[in-house]
């Protein structure tokens, strides 16, 4: 039986989330993990962008909403 990879528990997703920069807007160039919660809340209300960035922002919104952003800080590459 082949082992199936579950993306929900893939640490690479969190590493990428911690090191991806916002490509547009008021916070262009900021690491996604450093985006302020009110900005993510605005996206939550208005709708996240389509595609990978939208998935990353929605994930980050849930992480920050639940007070778990401390999990991302050690993953930021210096």
From TrEMBL:
Pfam families per record: QSregVF_b
Name of the molecule in the record: Cytoplasmic protein
Lineage: Bacteria, Pseudomonadati, Bacteroidota, Sphingobacteriia, Sphingobacteriales
